[in-house]
Amino acid sequence: MTQTHQSSSSGLIRTRKRRMRPELVLGIALVVPGIALAVIFKLVPLVRAFILSLYQTRGFEEPKFAWFANYASMFKDPVFATSFKNAALVFVTLPVWIFLPLVLALLIFQRSPGWKLFRAVYFLPYMIAPVVVGIMFRQILAPDGPLNAFLIFIGLAPLAIEWLNGATSALFSLTAVALWSFFGLGVLTYLSGLSTVPDEVIEAARLDGAGFWRLLIEIVTPLLKPVIGYWTVLCTSSMLIWMFPLIYALTRGGPGSATMLPEYLVFTTTFEFLNRGKGAAIGMALFVFAAIVSAFVVRRMYAEGKASK
């Protein structure tokens, strides 16, 4: 009896293994292309950039191995410190990047008047090339541009400033343009998350007398924590990496270094001053900074998700 039971158990295990083999092969076949792309287009360039950062390069001369001399020069460069200080100031606006699309997504989800039109209008800026957005807003934010003309027309002449020429206003004007260009994707992301919320939950909250803001804070936000965490990580990377075309089209890092961000400093150091080694070192510093910030956000999101279970 025992031998019969053992043989049937071993036969069942062999059957399960045979069934798992095609699934395992299929899983590997689906994962390998993604891993290969990540290695070719992410890991290999990262390793090459680190190796290049160890070489001293001047113009088109032959590179010379210099250990960590580029990193020492980078930390002594005041523009490098300014670029990361500007990045920190941009990060101050992160709550706006996170919660403004959520508010608009909930308004659309509730099918407020004109919700179909606004759904298209909010997403349209994201479909426009960032360089085109930069050129367009360079005209709008000019001292004699439409924005200042409108402010003067409605009696707010003191607010009609040189938006892209002020030491403080230039950076936050650049950030506002980036937010206008990017937040439509956030609205679409949150709408996708809201589509998973049961209608019964929303209706029950309304029957209990919950208004818009109470519904947003007490019901929607806890239910969409994973989506909010994903969007936070995406915004973090976009603030550090995706603002380059806007800087190039709007300010070129000026006035002075007021809108110089690390990714644009990599470009100027590498392609304008032809110092590829130092440019690679700055790029590595940017990578480490972005990795630390993203890891902090993901860790915080994971801890909150674990605590809520």
Q: Could you outline the blueprint of secondary structure elements for this entry?
A:
Elements: H1 2-53, E1 55-56, E2 64-65, H2 69-76, H3 78-91, H4 94-109, H5 115-127, H6 130-140, H7 146-153, H8 169-194, H9 199-207, H10 212-223, H11 225-241, H12 244-250, H13 262-272, H14 276-308
Antiparallel strand pairs: 1-2
Helix pairs in contact: 1-14, 2-14, 4-5, 4-8, 5-8, 6-12, 8-11, 11-14, 13-14
Provide a quick synopsis of the model:
This protein is mainly α. It has 14 helices and 2 strands, in the order H-E-E-H-H-H-H-H-H-H-H-H-H-H-H-H.
Report on this model:
The chain has 14 helices and two strands. The protein has 309 residues and is mainly α. Strands 1-2 form a two-stranded antiparallel sheet. Strand 1 and strand 2 form a beta hairpin. The two termini are 45 Å apart.
Please count the helical segments: 14
Helix content: over 70%
Radius of gyration: 26 Å
Count of β-strands: 2
End-to-end C-alpha gap: 45 Å
Main beta sheet, described? 2 strands, antiparallel
Shape, please?
globular
The helix-and-strand class reads mainly alpha
Roughly what is the average pLDDT, rounded to an integer?
Answer: 84
The low-pLDDT segments are 1-6
Strand order of the largest sheet: 1-2
- Portion in strands: under 5%
In sequence order, what are the helices and strands, one letter per element? Answer: HEEHHHHHHHHHHHHH
Structural features:
disordered N terminus; mainly alpha; two-stranded antiparallel sheet
